[in-house]
Amino acid sequence: AGWFRRLLHKPKSSSVESLKSSNSASSSPSSSSSSSAKSSRSSGTSLATSSISLSPVSAVDISTSDSPRWDKSYDVCICHSEEDMELVEELVSYLEGQPESFRCFLQLRDAVAGSAVVTELCDAVQNSHCWVMLITPGFLQDPWCRYQMHQALAEAPMANGRTIPVLKDVDRKDYPRELWNIYYIYMALKEKSFRQIRDTVMRYLQELCKSSTKRME
């Protein structure tokens, strides 16, 4: 009888798993300690992308005529080295081909001919909602890439989803110190990383529109 009572009171495995998943979903990556930040870096996930799965925002139409999305010329500014141009063109083609038709700034394509590089880089940062930093060996060696990274951080020093570091073919120990408070996307599978970038940009624009609607109310 005692054995039978213990069996009846034994929690079901599905209930335990449900409780674990519930606790996991309720935890916020933004409130993690240094130890959790270390584990996040080692797993190669981005803070912004993790937030999408943990606390999704309600559907918001970012393409309405009065959307604050149109306050800037571009949705995304891609910061990259010239040697990564082929990969960047694929990323831009992917983002611009989405149903939302994200507007991307690509320096070699969109810069005004004859204009100063510094002016173009600053204008691109100021006129974009989000900045994708494709951090590769070429990026780390390119002074213009680092300059644009510093401009983006000066524009929005807090990690609010606007700066999106993407790490590729670079050891985690070489991750720029300036970005240590921002989690990155580790590009192992290109298609998955492109989708993470798209989701992060989408989330920021939805939050922007949602905040604007609240202020109007």
Automatic annotation (TrEMBL):
* Stretches with biased composition (Low complexity): 13-48
What are the recorded GO MF terms, alphabetically? Toll-like receptor 2 binding; Toll-like receptor 4 binding
Tell me the ranges covered by the TIR domain, including all copies.
72-201
SMART domains in UniProt: TIR
* Any Pfam family hit: TIR_2
Start-end of Basic residues biased regions: 1-12
Task: Tell me one GO biological process term.
Answer: positive regulation of chemokine (C-X-C motif) ligand 2 production
Disordered: annotated segments = 1-48
Which Gene Ontology terms of cellular component type are present?
A: cytoplasm; plasma membrane
The protein in question is named TIRAP protein
Q: Which gene encodes it?
A: Tirap
